[in-house]
Design brief:
The complex is a heterodimer. Chain A is an alpha/beta fold. In chain A, 49% of the residues lie in helices and 10% in strands. Chain A contains twelve helices and nine strands. The model of chain A has no long low-confidence stretch (mean pLDDT 94). In chain B, the strands form two sheets. Chain B has a six-stranded mixed beta sheet, covered by helices on one side. In chain B, strands 4-7 form a two-stranded antiparallel sheet. Chain B has one domain: Beta-grasp domain (Ubiquitin-like (UB roll), Roll). Chain B is of the alpha+beta class. Chain B is globular and about 35 Å long. The chains are: A alpha/beta, B alpha+beta.
Chain lengths: 315, 79
């Protein structure tokens, strides 16, 4: 297989785009695609001060490096869940990239704040580890924006993540979640930071290839709690469809984005009647909540701990 | 075709053989083959995996050499 641009031996074939590239031209292709997504969906403004949610995996570290190459200066935020070697190695990989690009990373240590690791926190809250982890991560990543003055939280969610989530929401007709996913989510002044996903239209395969070709040493190991997760099953099913019919995942997610615009437009015309119930905020910390304290503050209260959301800074 | 785990097939490893790292385990293969054939042998999808030979990313039609150092990387993650 030859590179479409230079005719040299290709290093990756992209069947959904009916093309193949060598290392150099794949990097150019990928970076241009992300740059176009950022521009088309107005994900990052000139006045923005972004922070990247980093996990040590291929997606977030690739995003962090790519933004730096594009001249977009962004720091990182990492939630250390205290999962033994997995969390330690993840942080090492993050620090290596932070050193390479000359940016700092804010680290929230779950064991330091809660006095126990995520599995113990989850047990205490009678929740699944992934549920407790998601709640703490969403809170902490928002908190770093509000406390440190970042205007935008960027995450490495890719096309496969979005397609799998969409597939799950449709499969079980979770209407309460179905139209909430978007490539960017607006801020709620003083309470919730703006969020965006620049890899929304890039496949997991493309992102992994970008990480490898760019020489990013990311963590291959999966989180030990992700075994048997439905998301991975959905990704397998969608991967089978993609092999049989390249481009299916992209059409699925792009089709959703198009439908979403129509749904949002209809909501606006409806005078905001479909916007949902009145917004409520946590009386302790101001984070949006369904009423009363937010999940994070309730978790601290459960363990009889005072409110704390402190970060360690590296770099 | 597949010799199996490197540690349990020292007889194969002594010959010129392709070494493949997959999911943290080392495998050896007796003969050179295309990347697409290797993925078939391992029973893994083309869409969900990338192959690195001698530290370079390679496509499915790339012929792996008998003394190549190969790594099969699963791209799917999440939970």
């Amino acid at each position: 297989m030859k590179c479409r641009v230079c005719g040299q031996t290709a290093s990756i074939s992209l069947r959904s785009h009916k093309t193949a590239f060598c290392d150099t031209h794949f990097l150019t292709f990928f970076e241009k695609r992300v740059s176009t997504t950022i521009r088309r969906y107005q994900l990052i403004g000139g006045a923005d001060r972004p922070v990247v949610a980093v996990s040590g995996g291929k997606d977030s570290l690739s995003l962090w490096l790519l933004l730096t190459k594009m001249g977009i200066a962004a720091d990182g935020v990492y939630v250390d869940l205290g999962i033994g070697n997995y969390s330690r190695v993840s942080l090492e990989k993050i620090k290596a990239v932070a050193d390479r690009i000359g940016r700092k990373v804010h680290v929230f240590h779950v064991p330091d704040v809660f006095g126990r690791d995520i599995s113990e926190v989850a047990k205490g809250l009678r929740r699944a580890p992934c549920s407790a982890c998601g709640m703490i991560k969403r809170y902490v990543m928002n908190k770093v924006c509000l406390d440190k003055g970042y205007t935008l939280l960027l995450t490495g969610h890719n096309l496969d993540d979005e397609a799998a989530a969409l597939f799950g929401n449709i499969l079980y007709w979770k209407k309460e979640y179905l139209w909430k996913k978007d490539i960017a989510l607006d801020a709620r002044e003083g309470h919730l930071s703006r969020k965006a996903k620049p890899f929304f239209l890039c496949s997991e395969r493309e992102v992994a290839a970008y990480a490898i070709v760019s020489g990013i040493d990311y963590i291959y190991e999966e989180c030990p709690f992700s075994k048997g997760a439905k998301t991975i099953t959905y990704k397998g099913i969608l991967g089978g469809l993609e092999e049989a019919s390249p481009g299916t995942k992209l059409m699925f997610v792009k089709g959703y984005l198009k439908e979403l615009r129509g749904v949002k437009e209809a909501m606006r015309e409806d005078g905001g009647a479909a916007a949902g119930p009145e917004e409520r905020f946590c009386p302790v910390c101001g984070y949006p909540s369904g009423g009363g304290e937010c999940g994070f503050c309730r978790a601290l209260q459960k363990f009889e701990l005072p409110y704390s959301a402190r970060f360690e800074e590296y770099g | 075709m597949v010799c199996g785990l490197l540690t349990s097939h020292r007889r194969c490893a002594k010959k010129l053989a392709m070494q493949v790292n997959w999911e943290g385990k080392e495998y050896v293969f007796e003969k050179p083959m295309l990347v697409s054939r290797l993925l078939q042998e391992l029973n893994v999808s083309k869409e969900g995996h990338l192959v690195v030979a001698n530290n370079r990313l390679v496509t499915e039609d790339h012929r792996l050499g008998a003394d190549d150092n190969v790594k099969v990387i699963r791209v799917v993650s999440g939970g």
